[in-house]
Amino acid sequence: MTFNGVAQIVIFFLIVLALAKPVGIFLSRVFNGHRTFLHRPLRWLEALCYRVGGVDPEQEQRWTQYAISLLAFSAVSFLFVYAIQRLQGFLPLNPQHFGGKQVSPDLAFNTAISFVTNTNWQSYAGETTLSYFVQMAALTVQNFVSAAAGVAMSVALIRGFARRESKTIGNFWADLTRATVYVFLPLSLLGALFLCSQGVIQTLRPNLPVRTVQGATQVIPGGPVASQEAIKMAGTNGGGFFNANSAHPFENPTPLTNYLEMLFIFVIPAGLAYMFGREVGDTRQGWALFAAMSALFLAGAFFCYHFEQRGNPLLARMGIATQATASQPGGNMEGKEVRFGITDSALFATVTTDASCGAVNSMHDSFTPLGGMVPLVNMLTGEVIFGGVGAGLKGMLLFAILAVFIAGLMVGRTPEYVGKKIEQKEVKLAMVALIAAAASILVFTALSSVLRFPAHGYWNPPGPAAANVANPGPHGFSEILYAYASTTGNNGSAFAGLNTNTPWYNLTLGLAMFIGRFIFLLPLLGIAGSLAAKKRLAVTSGTFPTHGPLFVCLLIGTVILVAALTFFPALSLGPIAEHYLLFSRHALAAVKP
Amino acid sequence: MRYLSPAFRFVLLFTVLTGIIYPLAVTGLCQWWFPHQAEGSLVRAKGRIVGSALLGQTFTGAAFFHPRPSAAGKGYDPMASGGSNLGPTNPMLLARVQAAVARFRRDNPAFRGPIPSDLLTASGSGLDPDISPAAAYAQAPRVAQARGLSLILVRHLIGQTTQPRQLGFLGEPRVEVLRLNLALARLAPAGPATAPRSRPAM
Lengths: 593, 202
Known about the structure:
- In chain A, 62% of the residues lie in helices and 3% in strands.
- Chain A is mostly helical and 593 residues long.
- In chain A, the strands form three sheets. Chain A has a two-stranded antiparallel sheet. In chain A, strands 2-3 form a two-stranded antiparallel ribbon. A two-stranded antiparallel sheet of chain A has the order 5-6.
- Chain B is mostly helical.
- Helix content of chain B is 47%, strand content 6%.
- Chain B contains seven helices and four strands; from the N terminus they run ααββαβααβαα.
- Chain B has helices at residues 4-33, 35-38, 91-107, 133-147, 151-161, 177-187, 195-201; strands at 42-45, 48-52, 130-131, 175-176.
- Chain B has a two-stranded antiparallel ribbon with strand order 1-2. A two-stranded antiparallel ribbon of chain B has the order 3-4.
- In chain B, strand 1 (42-45) and strand 2 form a beta hairpin.
- Chain B is extended and about 75 Å long.
- The interface between A and B is large, with 135 and 111 residues.
């Protein structure tokens, strides 16, 4: 670790810390329908949305109605995205003349689920598959609204804790509209302009072939990238315009854009944590969640940074520098960009998986085993660390419920959290959510590790499902585990060596995304509805305080314990086994060409 | 129907708002305020476009600074951006780097010590326009000799082309290979052994 590297990580954290409160206050005002500084320029747009949508924003919904609205909106979105992709050949803004040949039905299914669930897993390479129209009218739209729907669900859950003896948890259409109009549109507009000023392209010209200095032909791609890039980060979507995602210089040209993209990922989730405390009437409760998230974030970032900077001992033996100097980054640079070096690549990998973003600025597949385990574990814990707008604060609140439940068992009292009794129903729903996610990851990973399909068949042309991995040994298993962890967690980043554009993977990964979004989140809405109906209990001397260091530690412990008990066997087959292989003489024997 | 009707209306509404109006508005503003960047930071030399300042391109021969290995297509193909995705224990990675080390040592006999870590590893995008300053200095003696320039001059040129950390602390110092090679070509336009000339003589 270098002084500069540590400083970059610490300064990043301090900026997030400084933004949490103002952003949280802003969000809380927006979702309560209060005036903000954006009211004057944008109020008319909000009103227009309600009029066109034909809804009354004041009409409160029960949790079931809220959930059905969400499902209806997602279902229609899914059909739209599927249809637009399949029909791209007949639609405008298609200078490369892509058609249905590029987008098979199973790929279109996968991509549609992927963007509707805020996962943005990509089984395709954007620059050679999708027209500008699809990127804009299908994918950019879902970047906005799937994120807005995610925020809406977080807000509904917060209301569940905040309200007392209430049958309703807000109005989905109002939350969706407010998140889009007051949060994501202005943020993306500013972000896109700034990104473009740094070099992110924004053009509708077709790809431009040029002759390079040495006379070869190189095609300079075009496309409306900046507008998609900004919302891709702010909405923790992560689906890149190009295959290389945020490693591509046209998506992420400078260290400054890189820093900004990471801040965009964290700013709303951090604000939501503060908003939670504010809404339940005790900001310390929000800061306690924030503290638990911060501790896990910093631990992950420095762990990943350490192992990436340590580098690959097998390459070091061939004479590649691993020590950082003033003029070169050292460490494991395979799959990383020079402008980001080791620090910003490790930090980005941690941030993008702490939140459910999934954009990548370096190839996680080429990370060292333990460096690459950090993003994997972040996703396996359910992306509770700041969490992103897709599946974020919600996950941490779920663990908070479990933590007070466990604490309650230990002292033999009915558990309470922020004044609400946590009873059988809430704990059961929380367990449904957790078990569904874990089962999706582990069962699909196991199936893909052992299932054998006939070669050149329909389901998986390469043959056995495990034949799609790009790397032999434990690393190949890590690729499969990472894929299902990423899709179930609605993250979307990848150990990209795995070839997933076959019907088997497109369908099972699509299913995993569906489970991760809906089977994980609907129980949470149920919890919100059940909590909202309860009385608020007065704080007594017997109340377990949930705002102090003791609770923060208990919460962190619960997150780690649940993840460790569930996933340690799988992790030991993948990254941990590979780590010992890498540092043992046994592996070196295989190196000699 | 009570739920499907608003669902349809909202999807349509947001498709128009965020899928058409928003990107077109951004396109308009960017083309107006930052036309150079919005079009891809294109670089011109001798009156024609030779590439983008942000995308690396292949350079071979002793007289040019070489970029990093690229996993994008056959090398620096923006239509196939991406990394090698080879894991740290993959024999293919190890064999590739082993071969690159041997080639580098052969081509740069003047260089001793550990090779800068970025120079022989493939980038994530396959389009990395930069190399580290150390990776440029490591190639300086070879380039100077091939061009008949003094080593001091070439090293000075690298120093001039080096971009420091942004805002003083962000990212890593870096050298843009295309810019460095164009500056080099301006300095010694018809050097005795620039790549196009040396070939017929061989």
